Write a sequence for this structure.
């Protein structure tokens, strides 16, 4: 009803006199009698006064609207498709649910701190986990900007994961995002977890960058460089909370992201990121992505790796910590995927251990449709002190509604 | 040392910056229009209409399933300087075009922008759902069936629309665009006499198709789809559904299982083995087979393959 009411308002606001002749005149009415429109306006004023409201006369001819709206909304074949699809001015609304069943052989929370929303279990206790429900609202604001809002609900409550406007009409290849958003740093950090191939955050990213993705309020200006390949330079100022920190730090970020078509089937992405956090330290990152997909195929192979480096305030360059991961994912068809990942990360000081933790993971995924997937991830974790740990996660995910296209 | 600083360049820094900006950002005066289309069929029509006045490129290729093109950022580079983006519309490119358009930073090619032309706006759209729609029906196109490029009547209307928009963008060559579109229209009319004659022999025959990509072709040819290999759009056929299709193909004596060559042909091959019907792999668009580099060649091949198989 709302669209037709809107239409009624629009049409009735039309001052065009063309419709007047079609108005039936009361039979036998003297020509000096007030026109029906005047009658109606007077009546409306009287009713408004009786109701105690202000007497704002409404434009005439509202009775024309329903039939016009009805004919516009005819469900028959029409040039340009279904007009209702565009009349519904709602933003794209989507909900994404993530649930897991985790079994760890060691006390992961104490021995190997993970990302804030990564599923893990107490030692030898099969544990069901409600990971997250993400609610997405996405729409253009006006011809000049788009807004993306992602609300996150989990066992700790509700939070705004991201909410930002993006300009669409700046000149010279420029674009500005403002709001609260994932920092333009690295590859996985900018993606929502439901876009990731593997179920959890790489250890090095959780420990060196941010336990729940480096993000926060700020402004991100980016420039698409006028070169023949894809080269995008980001400069951002944000307030972010680095890994396992409670306080936010003012942060300056820069990122250069480039993509090259190596052949019809092969694309290489190379990204360099840097961040300086006030009264905290510096972060650096390198990310590589290689996707091989024959054009006629729905299957592909994607190789991906990232290196993270961290240097706390006052430390020399060689005193910093570093880590990273490398993974390969093979999508054999639209419905099946398998993957393998290797990681190295520095021990988290809170564990009392020093040295490097290594982890290797296997992934198998089934995608019955584009809108859900079921994944199993098995990991072998070698703790910094040489102890072994085994982890398994069974993970289910669904998407309903209209969700914006995912990044490459 | 002299008191004058030596300039590295015979131009002041602000002017240099301005020059750089103009070089990179200015669309240029006398250069050919840069026309980008989402699919090769639309590119073929744009080339016919634009001739030498435009460089036309397609973001996807004829061998690709147009629903599942990657939103590869290198495609955004092609859109950055596009003077015109011609998209298919009806959500065919919903999974990959919007992020590319945003990444391109080209404000004029946003939906409803002055340099955006949506082909569906010239087409009598089929299969518009009249009742409630949700994904229990599969990955349905809620705005209507977007696979109209296989219908020459749609192509004629789109070509006329492209000519009108090119004339607006490049008034100096308006007459040429109108002339070329009229030439194409006449050629397609002549082709249609030939194509319709080929369909006449096949009229009212039934086929089995993979996906509802053939609605427009079927309506034009007079053929009909007795069944689809996909039980619902985008849903892979389970054996139970294929068994039903096999029974239907046997009962109705259907001769052809028509499948775009970007689909996995295994389901069709299984049905063929059990029935003796023939799997007909058709190109999905211009460029879907080697040598199909014009719209007329593409339709020629479609008619040859489909009409030939059902005769």
């Amino acid at each position: 009803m709302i669209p037709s009411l809107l239409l009624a308002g629009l049409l009735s606001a039309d001052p065009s006199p063309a419709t007047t002749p079609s108005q039936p005149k009361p039979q036998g009415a003297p020509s000096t009698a007030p026109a029906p429109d005047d009658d109606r306006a007077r009546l409306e004023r009287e009713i408004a006064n009786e109701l105690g409201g202000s007497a704002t006369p409404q434009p005439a001819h509202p009775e024309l609207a329903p039939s016009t709206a009805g004919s516009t909304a005819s469900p028959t074949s029409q040039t340009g498709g279904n007009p209702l699809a565009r009349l519904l001015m709602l933003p794209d609304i989507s909900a994404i649910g993530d649930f897991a069943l985790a079994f760890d052989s060691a006390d992961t929370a104490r021995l190997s701190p993970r990302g804030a929303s990564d599923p893990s279990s107490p030692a030898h206790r099969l544990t069901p986990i409600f990971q997250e429900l993400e609610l997405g609202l996405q729409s253009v604001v006006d011809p000049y900007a788009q807004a993306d809002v992602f609300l996150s609900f989990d066992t700790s409550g509700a939070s705004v994961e991201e909410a930002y406007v993006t300009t669409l009409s700046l000149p010279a290849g420029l674009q500005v995002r403002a709001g609260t958003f994932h920092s333009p740093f690295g590859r996985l950090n900018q993606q929502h977890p439901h876009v990731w191939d593997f179920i959890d955050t790489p250890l090095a990213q959780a420990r060196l960058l941010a336990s729940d993705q480096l993000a926060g309020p700020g402004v991100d200006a980016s420039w698409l460089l006028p070169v023949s390949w894809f080269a995008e330079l980001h400069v951002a100022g944000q307030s972010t909370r680095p890994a396992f920190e409670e306080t936010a730090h003012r942060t300056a970020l820069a990122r250069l992201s480039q993509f090259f078509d190596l052949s019809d089937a092969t694309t290489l992405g190379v990204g360099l990121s840097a961040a300086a956090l006030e009264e905290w330290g510096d972060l650096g990152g390198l990310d590589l992505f290689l996707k091989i997909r024959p054009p006629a195929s729905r299957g592909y192979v994607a190789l991906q790796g990232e290196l993270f480096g961290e240097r706390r305030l006052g430390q020399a360059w060689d005193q910093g910590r570093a880590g990273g991961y490398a993974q390969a994912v093979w999508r054999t068809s639209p419905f099946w995927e398998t993957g393998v990942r290797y990681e190295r990360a520095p021990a988290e000081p809170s564990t009392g251990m020093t040295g490097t933790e290594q982890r290797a993971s296997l992934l198998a995924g089934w995608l019955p449709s584009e809108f859900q997937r079921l994944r199993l991830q098995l990991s072998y974790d070698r703790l910094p002190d040489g102890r072994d740990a085994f982890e398994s996660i069974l993970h289910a995910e669904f998407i309903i509604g209209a969700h914006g296209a995912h990044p490459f | 040392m002299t008191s004058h600083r030596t300039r590295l360049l015979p131009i002041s820094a602000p002017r240099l910056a301005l020059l750089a900006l103009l070089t990179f950002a200015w669309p240029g005066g006398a250069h050919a229009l840069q026309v980008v289309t989402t699919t090769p069929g639309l590119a073929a029509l744009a080339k016919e209409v634009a001739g030498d006045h435009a460089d036309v490129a397609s973001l996807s290729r004829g061998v690709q399933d147009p629903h599942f093109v990657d939103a590869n950022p290198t495609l955004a580079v092609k859109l950055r300087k596009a003077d015109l983006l011609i998209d298919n519309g009806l959500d065919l490119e919903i999974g990959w075009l919007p992020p590319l358009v945003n990444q391109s930073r080209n404000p004029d090619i946003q939906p409803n922008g002055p340099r955006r032309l949506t082909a569906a706006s010239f087409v009598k759209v089929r299969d518009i759902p009249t009742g409630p729609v949700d994904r229990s029906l599969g990955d349905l196109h809620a705005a209507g069936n977007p696979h109209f490029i296989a219908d020459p009547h749609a192509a004629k209307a789109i070509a006329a629309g492209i000519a009108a928009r090119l004339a607006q963008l490049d008034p100096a060559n308006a007459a040429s665009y109108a002339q070329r579109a009229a030439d194409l229209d006449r050629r397609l009319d002549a082709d249609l006499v030939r194509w319709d004659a080929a369909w006449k022999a096949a009229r009212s025959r039934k086929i089995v198709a993979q996906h509802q990509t053939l609605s427009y072709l079927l309506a034009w040819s007079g053929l009909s789809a007795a069944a689809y290999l996909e039980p619902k759009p985008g849903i892979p056929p389970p054996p139970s559904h294929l068994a039903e299709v096999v029974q239907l193909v046997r009962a109705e004596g259907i001769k052809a299982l028509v499948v775009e060559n970007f689909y996995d042909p295994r389901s069709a091959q299984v049905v063929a083995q059990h029935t003796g019907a023939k799997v007909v792999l058709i190109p999905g668009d211009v460029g879907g087979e080697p040598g199909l580099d014009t719209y007329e060649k593409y339709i020629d091949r479609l008619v040859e393959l489909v009409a030939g198989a059902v005769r």
Remarks:
- The CA atoms of residues 82 and 247 of chain B lie 51 Å apart.
